[in-house]
């Protein structure tokens, strides 16, 4: 009887329909026809994330199966430690935290800073050169040259050539480390409600302290820019301007440091509202693309084309309206020389630039600007930035005040940029007519704010790079961006 029941059960089981296999979701194909650039970019990100998750799962499985990984490995290590100590009570080993975070970053799309092992916290007070008495300052991010220049990485001759430039590298790395520590602290106090003039003066005072200001040998390279929303560049408050940073503002913070004329030009964008993230992502991605495309023998036009392609693959939705993100076609990166912020070569951020090539040993500021507006800037608003003409010829001046002001500029700024707040700080009074006279004489150039259409938003990211003989060094790279 039991055998009969068993056979009947088997027959009923074999006759039961098997469940239909689950259908796999359709594969994501970023190359499928009919997709926009933004859609293709999002699909590629999803695929990369999916592959990363699969890799993480495989790695976790491997570590848990292996004798030295996972919880089993920890238990074996603890057992071994207990045996050596004579069979005492088991104690869990605490894992050391690598690079404790200095503070939680409030600014969108900027990374957290690690604490400096020797610098004071929360505000840095020790000049950078005292932290590195042997002059071995941190080296920036290294990127190797591809293709026909790949031989440079291992060339003994080129390494010898770099040793001859050691003093220059020390100067610019000291300036870069100062810039990193200043912007690290600045990012901790830049919050909605701060007055821009107070923010700029705090940044500049700290810059002077950490670089150990010493006349033209070391100090600030140019005024702190804090251009907001549709203003793209060259704005810093004059005395009496009490503009306040708003929660929905997009602000570009651009300041520089110099040691023996070697300038670090570096900028980032401040935003607190996540709705602006696509704009910031586009510009940051474009800047990193420009850095990657730059190199010895690279043409300036090819760098601009690569930047524009990435920048304009993004779009942003604001208040229900979708805007394409445009490269601002009349703003550029630039080469940097000793005491010369713009040394002659311009790095475009759109296609169609000149075919001039980048050369070994040159410094470049790779900066990109993305806009929700026209993608074109014009001069507007009250001027605050000025700079003496680098190759100015002697011009006879009639006004005594103009002569005195020019003497002050030559002594304190030389060919570095300055602003009206710095003239006020030095005790200069009633200088506007003399300053206008110097501009009309061609001895000093005025640089008014550069603005896109009102109501638009502009973001900027910038790094200084050095085309060393053996590699490309992103000198100003930090934990933040």
Structural class, please? alpha+beta
- Major beta sheet, specifics? 7 strands, antiparallel
Mean pLDDT: 87
Radius of gyration: 29 Å
Low-confidence stretches: 1-25, 54-96
- N-to-C series of helices and strands: HHHHEHHHEEEEHHEEEEEEEEHEHHEEEE
Distance between the termini: 78 Å
Number of E-state strands: 18
Number of contiguous helices: 12
Relative strand content: 15-25%
Global shape = globular
Share in helix? 25-40%
Written description of the protein model:
There is one protein chain. The protein is of the alpha+beta class and 481 residues long. The chain contains 12 helices and 18 strands. It has helices spanning 2-15, 37-65, 70-84, 128-131, 156-163, 166-189, 196-210, 277-293, 300-311, 400-412, 420-425, 432-440; strands at residues 141-143, 218-228, 231-233, 251-259, 262-270, 315-318, 321-324, 326-327, 332-336, 346-348, 363-371, 378-379, 385-388, 418-419, 444-447, 450-451, 458-467, 472-474. Strands 1, 8, 9, 10, 11, 17 and 18 form a 7-stranded antiparallel sheet that branches. A hairpin with a 2-residue loop joins strand 6 and strand 7. The radius of gyration is 29 Å and the shape is globular. Mean pLDDT is 87; it is low at 1-25 and 54-96.
């Amino acid at each position: 009887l039991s055998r009969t029941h068993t056979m009947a059960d088997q027959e009923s089981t074999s006759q039961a329909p098997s469940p239909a296999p689950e259908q796999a979701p359709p594969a994501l194909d970023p190359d499928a026809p009919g997709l926009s650039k933004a859609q293709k970019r999002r699909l590629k990100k999803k695929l990369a994330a999916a592959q990363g998750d699969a890799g993480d799962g495989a790695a976790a499985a491997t570590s848990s199966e292996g004798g030295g990984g996972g919880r089993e490995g920890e238990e074996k290590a603890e057992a071994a430690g207990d045996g050596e100590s004579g069979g005492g009570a088991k104690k869990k080993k605490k894992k050391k935290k690598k690079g404790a975070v200095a503070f939680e970053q409030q600014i969108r799309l900027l990374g957290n800073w690690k604490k400096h092992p020797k610098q004071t916290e929360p505000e840095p007070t020790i000049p950078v050169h005292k932290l590195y008495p042997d002059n071995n300052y941190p080296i920036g991010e290294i990127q190797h040259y591809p293709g026909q220049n790949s031989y440079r990485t291992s060339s003994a001759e080129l390494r010898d050539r770099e040793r001859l430039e050691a003093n220059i590298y020390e100067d610019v790395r000291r300036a870069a480390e100062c810039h990193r520590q200043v912007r690290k602290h600045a990012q901790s106090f830049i919050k909605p409600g701060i007055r821009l003039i107070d923010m700029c003066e705090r940044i500049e005072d700290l810059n002077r302290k950490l670089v150990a200001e010493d006349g033209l040998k070391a100090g600030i390279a140019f005024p702190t820019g804090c251009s907001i929303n549709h203003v793209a560049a060259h704005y810093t408050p004059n005395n009496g301007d009490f503009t306040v940073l708003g929660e929905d503002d997009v602000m570009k913070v651009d300041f520089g440091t110099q040691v023996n004329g070697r300038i670090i030009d570096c900028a980032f964008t401040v935003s607190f509202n996540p709705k602006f993230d696509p704009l910031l992502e586009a510009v940051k991605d474009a800047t990193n693309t420009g850095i990657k495309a730059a190199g010895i023998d690279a043409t300036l036009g090819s760098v601009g084309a690569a930047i524009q392609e990435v920048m304009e693959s993004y779009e942003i939705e604001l208040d229900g309206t979708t805007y394409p993100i445009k490269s601002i076609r009349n703003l550029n990166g630039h080469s940097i020389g000793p005491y010369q912020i713009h040394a002659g070569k311009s790095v475009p951020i759109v296609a169609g630039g000149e075919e001039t090539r980048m050369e070994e040993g040159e410094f470049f500021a790779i900066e990109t600007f993305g806009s929700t507006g026209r993608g074109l800037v014009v001069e507007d608003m009250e001027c605050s930035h000025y700079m003496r003409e680098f190759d100015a010829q002697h011009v006879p001046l009639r006004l005594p005040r103009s002569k005195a002001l020019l003497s002050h500029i030559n002594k304190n700024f030389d060919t570095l940029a300055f602003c009206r707040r710095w003239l006020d700080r030095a005790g200069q009074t009633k200088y506007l007519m003399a300053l206008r006279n110097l501009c009309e004489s061609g001895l000093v150039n005025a640089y008014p704010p550069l603005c896109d259409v009102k109501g638009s938003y502009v973001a900027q990211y910038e790094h200084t790079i050095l085309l060393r003989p053996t590699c490309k060094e992103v000198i100003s790279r930090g934990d933040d961006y």
